[in-house]
């Protein structure tokens, strides 16, 4: 380990437990073997020019988007995970910062929160994370977030997430049960698409 395996004070107990026990090489190898890119497929279908992968971990989504010709920037609080990402894709911008207070000095067409990122944030900071993600959206920009509703610890309610999105100036566009856009009729996992309010209807992302 090159850094504290549980960085910062704004992570959930669930994340802290996972991070202390995980073997990063095995974790990374599992995703390489699975070669699953459902998140990247959905994001790419929105035709963005630029994407912020918020809570990017080892960079799986950002790297796949870059491979498809989309500008991608990855942000995570964990320096060890970012080191793995940078080793795989040194040409990309990787930022080690807290999602609850990040300020990258620019905006993006899409911000994606994949892999249960919100569940790994401390309960009382999730609304801050949503607000900072929204602040990094350009006109007509889209926030895509997927997370479980059935995790034993650090659970999140859908109405709480929607309230945080509304407070951040976002409006609901779509909601699915999977990254493959299966219809959401309730259940244990949800993928939500919100747009920055007040967008220009002529915007290519509209």
UniProtKB/TrEMBL annotation:
Which organism does this sequence originate in? Answer: freshwater metagenome
Sorted alphabetically, the Gene Ontology BP terms of this entry are: methylation
Residue span, Methyltransferase domain: 51-141
Q: Which key words tag this protein in UniProt?
A: Methyltransferase, S-adenosyl-L-methionine, Transferase
Q: Which Pfam families match?
A: Methyltransf_25
- UniProt GO MF annotations: methyltransferase activity
Name the chain's protein: Unannotated protein
Q: Which InterPro entries match?
A: Methyltransf_25, SAM-dependent_MTases_sf
